[in-house]
Every structure is written in C-alpha cells, then in structure tokens.
Amino acid sequence: MKVSVIGIGHVGLVTAACMAEWGHDVIGFDNDPAKITSVENRQVPFHEPGLRDLVLTGVDAGRITVTGDPSVALDDRDVVFICVGTPKGKDGAPNLTYVQAAAAMVATHATKPTVVAEKSTVPVQTGERIKQALGLQAKSTGGSTQHAVVSNPEFLREGSAVQDTLFPDRVVVGADGEAPHRIMRELYQPLLDGHDCPYVATDVKTAELIKHASNAFLATKISFINAVARVCEMTGADVHTVADAMGHDARIGRAFLNAGLGYGGSCFPKDVEAFIHIAADLGYDFGLLRETERINREAKLWPVVQLRRLLWNIGDKEVAVLGLAFKPHTDDIREAPALEVIESLIEEGTQVRLHDPVALPQVADRWGDKVRLCETAEEAVRGAHAVVTCTEWPEYAEITAPQLAEWLEFPVVVDARNVWDPEGLVAVGIQLASVGRRMP
C-alpha cells in the first residue's frame, strides 16, 4: 500500500521504517529540514536502538523516501499517518495546532480520498475535530472531502520502539465504518500474518481513550510503588521485595513497579495531565490522576532531600549525577527527572558533574560552567563528594562497590534508581540512600 507519515520524529520515523519493512511504499514528511537531511544522509535524528538499520533497509530497497514538500508526500496515498507533536499547553490541555495543520495539509494536497490515521496521542473527540478541519480546508481550497478519519494509537516505549512496533501486544484501530477498517486491516496484514497479536477494532472515540487510559494507568502504577517506597523507608521494609511479591500476582504484574525517581519522557507527564484536563472538561474530577501527579513530583525531590541529610550543606560540594535521559537506551530528555535534580542542585550552589552514555549533546550549552559534562562515569564520580543515579543505564550497574568507595571523595551514594546492591555498598563503608529501603 502507499503510505505517508506526517512528522518523522520518535513515533513517525519508527512507523515509517516498520511500514516499509512490511513491504509498503512509504513517504515521510517533515517541515524540519534537519530531519529530512539526516535521513537523506543515512542517519536518524535521535537515538533509538535498531532504527537506523531498519531505515537504511527501507531506503536501500526504495520503500522509504523523505520530503519537505507536502504535494509530493500526499500524492496518491492510501493511508496518511499523523505523527506530529501534541505539546502541553499552559493550562495542561494538549496543544493540537500541529494536528490541525496536518489535517489541513491533507485536505489541500491529497490527490485522492485517503484514510487519515491519528497516531499522535490526542484527546478523545479529536477525530471529530480532524474531520471538521478536513472539511473546512477542503471547502477553502476545493480539495477532496471524502477522507476517512481513524484512530491508530501507538504503544511504543522509547528504547524499544522498533521491537514494540514489529512485535506489538495489540493493534488498536478505531474507525466509524467498515471501509476504513478494511483498509487498515490490509495495511497491518503482513504484521498479523507473522505475529500473534489481536487487532482491536473499535470506534474512533474508544480508540482515542484506550491510549490515554493505558498511559495513565502505567503512570499510576509507578506513583503507587513510589508511595509504597516511602512507607518502606520509614519501617525498614524492602520495596524491591514487596514489588517482586506483588508481581507474582497475575492480576498485578511486575512491570512498572520499580520505585525510583518517578516517570518522565514525552508521554506520561503530558498524557496524565491531558487526561485530567479532558475529564474536567467533561465534568469529571479525576482525583486519582491528580494524586498520581503529586506523588511523581515528590519522587523527583527525593535525591536532593537525601543529599542534604547525608552531606548537610551541599552548596559547597561536588555531586556526580549519573544519567540524564528519562530512561535507558534513549537520548530523549523531555521531562527527564534528572533535569529537576540538576536544577535543584544548581540552585543550592552545588557543582554538578554529569554523565550519560548518549544524551549529553542535548544539554551541551544548557548550564554553562555550572555543570561539568563527563565522558565517562568514572570521570564524573572520581573526587566527587557524592553520586546520584538518575537513569538506570546497564553500564552503571557494572560499577562495583569497591570502585565507588575508591573514586568518591566522601563515601555517599544516593541511588535514586536502585542500580546497586545496598548490602554490597554498605559493606565497603558507603553511606547509602536507596529508594524504598530503610534510611540509616
């Protein structure tokens, strides 16, 4: 099939590459020339494991092209995916300006009736708005008014987005009619033939709600276990053991029960706040999600509180921060908890040493000489008065307790991601604050 993807960011480029892998003819559009140039130069504009190889496979096979020309992108397309940003507005509601612009572009430049698929995370009832935008623009420009609008939400985890697309738990498609469902089934048939997952066919509004409900529930699990962690710290219980035992219950599951700095990234914070706002607009006070947000804000303050407890005055200290990205295996720092930790330390006057395996270029000019960017974890830790873990990169777990004891000026570790075995650290004389474990 002939597919267009509007927006080749974290979702759009993965979608384009996987659609090409399934044999479709894909054109990626973006109004950012840097992204277009990056792909044309056989690169990808962000870090995502496995994506570059998949993009190059599609490009070399002639199944992926990229363009900044909407008339080229929308010429003779069967399905058009909208994968643009939906940033948080000042009032917490998602800003859908880019979605509206994408719809107007389809109405203006599509050369035949097509299926317009929302893949950006949008509030329920956005499908109706897209239909309205398509109709208004078509009347203004004389374009087609026969486009069908469907919701096809993504459930990708940054750092494993390629695998999540090629081997998903489910494919959700919301359409208000049989014809668009037939087209979307045909689009996904190569996946469904080779991978056993359900195709969940529903209406547009239900599909839109599925995405927000899924992300909000996962965020709530994270906040729940962080609240449990506070109780564990006060009583001497171990949150890791609590979470493991909870996870054996099939009704609960172990995923997203890792106590730590809370959730970040481009999805959970924005989607939780958007869902609260959507519910309020409809007349429902989603108090559970407001508490989820509160607990998450509290979790981000935990490392600095512990540093003050263990070091007393931290304004005259040097602190190593390990990890910047909001999660491992990505260079995405949007809403990363580490940012708030670093900002709080800078406000205290602390000199920060920062290491991350891939994300440092994202903050090259952000803090000037208040933060020292380090090429290795050892460079960051050696001679520092304390170390804080903010992202659980696997390479940090390879640092041994004796190494930490040797490198640090003061034997103080604030393990905000529970990277290291606490008994091993304590055994070599390290003063430790570890999430969900009794504070000494």
Helix content: 40-55%
CATH architecture of the largest domain: 3-Layer(aba) Sandwich
The strand line-up of the biggest sheet is 3-2-1-4-5-6-7-8
What is CATH's topology name of the largest domain?
A: Rossmann fold
Q: How many strand elements?
A: 14
Overall form: elongated
The CATH superfamily of the largest domain is known as NAD(P)-binding Rossmann-like Domain
Span from first to last CA?
62 Å
Structural class: alpha/beta
Count, helices? 17
CATH class of the largest domain: Alpha Beta
Question: Could you say how many structural domains there are in total?
Answer: 2
Low-confidence stretches: none
Strand content: 5-15%
Radius of gyration: 24 Å
Q: How confident overall, as mean pLDDT?
A: 94
Largest sheet: 8 strands, mixed
Structural descriptors:
45% helix; Rossmann fold; single chain; 14 strands; 8-stranded mixed sheet; 17 helices; alpha/beta; 440 residues; 2 domains; 6-stranded parallel sheet
How would you summarize what this structure contains?
With 440 residues, the chain is of the alpha/beta class.
